[in-house]
């Protein structure tokens, strides 16, 4: 689903002492199948932005286009349910939305609302349980018996079971242990690849944005502050620090390395092992020279 | 949904009314509510309306905002007016509406009762607009203090009140968050047959209750961890004090009441 925002603004409680503009003349577009990270510090408008993606909020001026759906201030969007079916949002702390007696019922809740048949649901449940790495033995248990991390997985499974085309993740790993964070981010990435999803990740973690996203949008006070490739964005240390953000550790390391050894070490998207190899060759090379 | 209803909504400012001691405000408002019922002609109602308007202006809150917040009660006020119009049978018959006789006394009474109703709501909403919930409970605690002699748990009552007031916005936010999450999972709160809409409340209420209980437990733990053990010997961070401005308020209010008794019949 192609997504485009055209001069979108959103003002909460207009004409009251509590008037607050959360989004201010924001324009960008996201191509189908891309993985976009939206970064910004608290209060920059990220949460307001994602609520425009499935019509929970409408822009107070401007226009949002989600595929064939249009959201505009005075227009009544027909069939908003069809839009919500295609845009799955995993909110912050999604475990707070669990309510059914059993995990199975809770996962089935979304698909059922969107008119999936029982057969379809029974087919999807094992798939999503596997995706979030929960054992199927748990299906008859109450979601409230689980640990926090497991509850999070159940809630995410409930969103995945809707079979969305666009997956929106609002800090999905907040409050998880480091290993769980890595597992979960890897899981989303492999789903993104295998299901050909359009993924939008809202995050504080520069590391995650660099690792997984192929496009980054940085918000500041409801406005777009920067946009582009992670490789281009995350090397601009001074500019990022203007908005209380910092460069990812990997790049910080490479910069320090460059300075120390006065060698060019541009960042190329690569994993730790490759990075280690490059560094090894540089270090060894220097030893021979010295 | 909550944004249009201002009853119970505090608007910060530095106005005279905001700076009054909450006890002063509560006593004056309590007396005002009682004495509104003593007004019995247009002069006395006009006098009280003038006073209420003067108070509303001196809160420095935009009048449009106060008026907008009263929208839900306009209906009740208009309803009261028409009820009196048709039910009261005093004075001369002025004219008939589809066979119903309308008496001159009915119009007068309808207008007066509607004004009374309007004044009550306007004046009491002024308390919550200019006083934080914490100030209100502090005031209640001190005002009820004499009841301690009869073993009435004043402190506990005040604590319960301040905790519940404190958590109303939190729970509302939480409810909004959960309803958004469930709406994203295809729950439709706004359209469809009544039966479906009632059922749609379950996925909202269950998580809300769960989190309310969790919050209560965490709060109790946090309070105990910081040594809370009831009201005995507990001092206040913001001690209430009656100052000169409060005396002025009482003097003005006495003046208003004297005026009321001169003007009424």
Automatic annotation (TrEMBL), chain A:
Its EC number is 7.-.-.-. The keyword Translocase applies. Signal peptide: none annotated. This is Energy-coupling factor transporter ATP-binding protein EcfA2. Forms a stable energy-coupling factor (ECF) transporter complex composed of 2 membrane-embedded substrate-binding proteins (S component), 2 ATP-binding proteins (A component) and 2 transmembrane proteins (T component). It is an enzyme of class 7 (translocase). Pfam families: ABC_tran. ATP-binding (A) component of a common energy-coupling factor (ECF) ABC-transporter complex. It is a peripheral membrane protein. It comes from Pelagirhabdus alkalitolerans. Belongs to the ABC transporter superfamily. Energy-coupling factor EcfA family. GO terms for molecular function: ATP binding; ATP hydrolysis activity; ATPase-coupled transmembrane transporter activity; cobalt ion transmembrane transporter activity. It is found in: Cell membrane.
TrEMBL record, chain B:
It is found in: Cell membrane. InterPro entries: ABC/ECF_trnsptr_transmembrane, EcfT. GO terms for cellular component: plasma membrane. It is a multi-pass membrane protein. Its main location: membrane. GO terms for molecular function: transmembrane transporter activity. It holds the Pfam family CbiQ. Keywords: Cell membrane, Membrane, Transmembrane, Transmembrane helix, Transport. The chain crosses the membrane at residues 26-57, 69-87, 93-110, 245-263. Transmembrane (T) component of an energy-coupling factor (ECF) ABC-transporter complex. Unlike classic ABC transporters this ECF transporter provides the energy necessary to transport a number of different substrates. Forms a stable energy-coupling factor (ECF) transporter complex composed of 2 membrane-embedded substrate-binding proteins (S component), 2 ATP-binding proteins (A component) and 2 transmembrane proteins (T component). Belongs to the energy-coupling factor EcfT family. This is Energy-coupling factor transporter transmembrane protein EcfT. The lineage of its organism: Bacteria, Bacillati, Bacillota, Bacilli, Bacillales. The gene is ecfT.
